[in-house]
Amino acid sequence: MNRIPSGVVQFFEPLTSIRRKAENTIIEFFKSKGYEEIITPTFVYEDSVSEFLFEPLKNKLFKIVDKNSGQTMILRADITLQITQAVLLGDFKMPARLCYAQNVYRDIKEHLGQKREFKQIGVELFGIKEVDADFEVVSLAIDSLSLMGLNNLYVRVSDTYIIENLIKEFGLNPGKAERLRELVFLKNISHIKKEGFDSALIERIEQLESLSGLSLDNLKDCAFDAANLSLKIKEQYPDVEVFCDLFYCEYPLYHHGITFEIFAENKKLAVGGRYGNITKKLGRYIPATGFAIDLNELSYFLYEKENFR
Length: 309
Description:
Pfam families: tRNA-synt_His
GO molecular function: histidine-tRNA ligase activity
CATH class of the largest domain: Alpha Beta
Oligomer: single chain
Order of helices and strands: HEEHEEHEEHEHHHHHEEEHEH
Keywords: Aminoacyl-tRNA synthetase, Ligase
Number of helices: 11
Protein name: Histidine--tRNA ligase
Subunit structure: Homodimer.
């Protein structure tokens, strides 16, 4: 009689206080940096977002019927898309800086052990094309986690355009391109060599792998945006470990351009990157980048480390 659905959130003290304090502290920090808070609807009409949703999310939607209109509504599955739509429809002066702390709902199969309800806290920055925008967003992520008392942070920086440009240069057909993205995501050079890719392409990929790493000295003359960003992060945050991963492709592809992840003790705490491709799909290209922290996972982590009590 007292069962609750799998994958939903129920907190007790001291986790409730930890999560509340973390949320308030981070949001106020974002606001102090010029980011205005936005709250988006919990429900949206499916036909207004389904075409633009990240493909893997389309099979993970909670759906209900609006008794007033008869239309199908879905619970919020992606905050970034909602904020992007708001910016494109609203009268926002560029660059636009927005922050949020809201729940996300995804109908994930029970056996996967993932949460179907979780709270994200993060920022979105619109209207700046240069690497300065990526650096601003990464800095906010590092500084917000540092506010939680977390040290020994590890940042992985990559760029989806590196592999995408190789795909175009070597004229790979859609099937081959998709397979290469998958194998690069899996870091599987041996299979890339076995599956009949051009030897010159393989050589270029091996060069990307050799350039990647924690040692950034060999990137000082590198033209990739990911290398430039990695060097800027290390210069500003000498105590943060920075791994510039040129041999990487997000799969399935969500971000387009710079992507990054931030870890503490092998726990992924923040994920971000460029997504101007979404604004383009919506009809008006605006450079866009941002990041999100899973506030629930951060709260568990802080509790286990006895931080932020």
